[in-house]
Amino acid sequence: MNFNRRDLLRGGAALSAASLINPRGLALDQKSTRVASGRGLFQPSWNSLRNIPVPQWLRDGKFGIYTHWGVYSVPAFGKNGTWYAHNMYTNPDSEERKHQEATYGPLDKFGYKDFIPMFTGSHFNADEWAELFKKAGARFAGPVAEHHDGFAMWNTKYSEWNAAKMGPKRDVLGELSKSIKQHGMKFLTAFHHAEHWFYFPTWDKQYDVSDPRYAGLYGVSHERGALPTKEFLDVWIGKLKEVVDNYEPDVVWFDFGLRLIQQSYKTDCLAYYFNKAAAAGKEVAVTYKNHDLTPGVGIDDLELGRESNVTYYEWITDTTIDSGSAWGYVESVGFKSVDQLVTGLVDRVSKNGFLLLNVGPKPDGSIPEPAKERLLAMGEWLRVNGEAIYETSPWLIAAEGPTQFKKSGAFNEDNDIRFTPEDIRFTCRDNFLYATVLAWPGDKAFIKSLVPKGDTWAGLYPSEIDSIKMLGSDEPLRWEFTKEALAVTTPSVKPCDHAFVFKFTLKKPF
Description:
This protein is of the alpha/beta class. It has helices at 5-9, 17-20, 33-37, 46-49, 56-61, 84-90, 95-104, 126-135, 172-182, 196-199, 215-218, 230-247, 263-280, 338-350, 369-385, and strands at 14-15, 63-67, 140-146, 186-191, 251-254, 284-288, 299-301, 315-320, 353-359, 393-400, 424-429, 432-437, 444-447, 465-470, 479-481, 486-489, 500-506. The chain folds into two domains: 58-79 and 118-388, Glycosidases (TIM Barrel), CATH 3.20.20; 396-506, Sandwich (Immunoglobulin-like). The chain is 27% helix and 17% strand. β15 (479-481) and β16 (486-489) form a beta hairpin. α6 (84-90) crosses α7 (95-104) and α12 runs parallel beside α13. The longest helix has 18 residues, at 230-247.
């Protein structure tokens, strides 16, 4: 395999039979023929698993949607609805415990398991979800396969506590896999089940979490602080392999709990996934958080965060459409504005990132109307401006303007930030440069970064610009270079409601 230096430094992981089995039409080498023979190209070791290119479909697609839907959507309460049960059982003074006992009675009489019959999924329609995500402009989508709570969303052989046998009595993962693929999107599954080890206090004898009759849901009782057992790890990897075999996800997304997993289980799981994909000729990827895999094996996920500037490796943000961090459906939750969602996408893409946006459906399987409205509005924006997002590359610089993010990493999302007409983000492809102004600039936009500065920055040569237009408008635009900025007139009518894209068609200057 021949990778350039950027591939080797990327930090992303993907697998393509086209590039690994027969790259550029060259003859198969001895190592690659092991895939075809069934022996496997990848071995369960870090050095065997690293330096695999990010899938081209992910580089091109940029934007995905996933869902946190599970038993936790029934109580629909708390700042983080998916952690309702953990906070309820572990902290007697928590708002979750107070809500639980005020609403459902004493905890020793009504536990988390008792929510399952109320998790009906009576309005769940996989085709409707997939159609909505497609209209929103997502290029990949999928559900949380299992959250921390031990309730699997597919018909797993490892536990009776799953959505196919209880609650909705539907193979949610299977139905979404089929519908999402039929709508032309890649399929993602998210796994949080490593955190199941500590999510419920199975050592607490006061409540049902320690009752062996419910160990399939809450986990086998163990001492607080103990390391995961072999039995737990075997089920952890067994569920992953089962989903890989039965639903063939294009992305496997891992939450923070991956740090709890003994490394041989991680390498075994990844080698299994990558070899299955290679044999099927699929490009796939894994994501992870907090450096829980070695560099080059997966794509780093910055939860509720972003990079502050353009990077030489691809990364992804998972954030949620709600205005806080509820993740699952919470009745009192507010929602981010469409402007926040659109500008958040633009900012991340300009810095070599991807966006995975979460939606929390109701317990009956319907998606809240405010979430639907925002997704459709994002889709409308992408219908007009998508060529500045899809199939683009970061440019030489990512951004200009006063509103910058000084810190990189997770949990630095600022929902109160408001961009100005001076805030601009750049992407490019082929002979086009896109400058996205994050707030309406009035009659004229001023783009400072494009001005040539002699021995410090070439910017754009005036002779390099063939034409400038605003996406969504056919009005001719006038432009001129000043000492401080490239000044471009704007159309008389706004072509959209958020983030306005100037498209530069470039030519050779001489």
